[in-house]
Design a protein that fits this description.
Layout: H1 3-16, H2 22-34, H3 38-44, H4 51-66, H5 71-75, E1 77-80, E2 83-86, H6 96-109, E3 115-119, H7 125-133, E4 138-143, H8 146-158, E5 165-169, E6 180-185, H9 200-205, H10 208-211, H11 219-231, E7 232-241, H12 247-256, E8 259-266, E9 272-279
Helix pairs in contact: 1-2, 1-4, 2-4, 6-7
The structure holds S-adenosylmethionine (SAM).
């Protein structure tokens, strides 16, 4: 069987099982099986596939179609900020919305070298992207999940920034440190009662620790803001990602903790998604 035939067959099967991104998913799976980049693979088009490759490919297609496993977990990688990140079921799959946070922070800190803390680093996508652009910055990245920290360490190494990041497996509640110029965080922010409404691929496969924000979705967010008040330098910046409809409440918590909002950034669907605020004790 050839690659073109496999793509056609796989894509039809995904379509029948209501996978909207059936073509790109099929190409990504085949590219993962053959080891060729998707673009290169598409150009070369009709390759003859071995029995092993066909078996492996069919297995991935059926996991995608029937179990709705996210494509990033099937191929163990996700592109973020034009870099490849290793992902598995122990870390949240980096989202395009989070690139908006990275983009805005970089505009603000261009040509500066902030000392940065990333709270809830997961795959490490935020902090690794920031360090890649801010060549002389150093950082600490923490996560309550030891398995996530291991993935983030691997990603930092693969993207050549590991010498400038210290990873710590701890909860933000137990973290004490010297002061930072910038704190970034994309904490879990889904209200517990809404977890059941998430897409099946998310609720079945992504780590609950990365999603569950407690009763109103803001349990970890509150901890991030309280702790940031203590470990940010005066005039330091806190950049956080929030969930839909959480702006009013989060804004109040920020105000009560001496933060002044500097930038609000909307996502592609026009919801306020990121808040950048500055600590001012005086
Ligand atoms: C929404 S994920 C974000 C992952 C990554 N920063 C990203 O943007 O893709 C939240 C992360 O926070 C971690 N986390 C949850 N509660 C935490 C806590 N109390 N202290 C530190 N990390 C926590 C989770 O393990 C998870 O990796």
């Amino acid at each position: 069987m050839t690659s073109n035939e496999l793509i056609k067959k796989g894509s039809n099967f995904l379509k029948k099982n209501k996978i909207k991104s059936h073509i790109i998913d099929t190409e990504l799976l085949l590219s993962s099986v053959t080891g060729e980049s998707r673009e290169k693979f598409l150009l070369k088009s009709n390759l003859e596939m071995s029995q092993n490759q066909i078996r492996f490919f069919n297995n991935l297609i059926s996991r995608r179609a029937l179990r709705k496993e996210p494509i990033a977990y099937l191929i163990n990688k996700k592109e973020f900020w034009s870099m490849n990140f290793n992902v598995c079921k122990d870390v949240l799959i980096p989202r395009p919305e989070t690139e908006i946070l990275v983009e805005t922070v970089l505009k603000y800190f261009k040509d500066r070298n902030p000392f940065i803390l990333d709270i809830g680093t997961g795959s490490g996508c935020i902090i690794i992207s920031l360090l890649k652009e801010l060549n002389n910055s150093k950082a600490v990245a923490i996560d309550i999940s030891n398995k996530a920290i291991k993935i983030a360490i691997k990603n930092a190494r693969n993207n050549n920034v590991s010498k400038r990041i210290k990873f710590v497996n701890t909860s933000i509640s137990n973290f004490n440190s010297f002061k930072f110029d910038l704190i970034v965080s994309n904490p879990p922010y889904i209200a517990r009662h809404q977890l059941k409404n998430l897409d099946i691929g998310i609720k079945k496969f992504e780590p609950k620790l990365a999603l569950d924000g407690g009763n109103d979705g803001l349990d970890v967010m509150r901890k991030v803001i309280y702790k940031s008040r203590k470990i940010l330098k005066n005039n330091g910046m806190l950049a956080i990602e929030i969930g839909n409809g959480q702006y009013k409440k989060v804004s109040q918590i920020l105000k009560l903790n001496k933060f002044k909002e500097k930038f609000l950034i909307n996502d592609y669907k026009d919801n306020i998604r990121c808040i950048l605020s500055v600590l001012n004790h005086y």
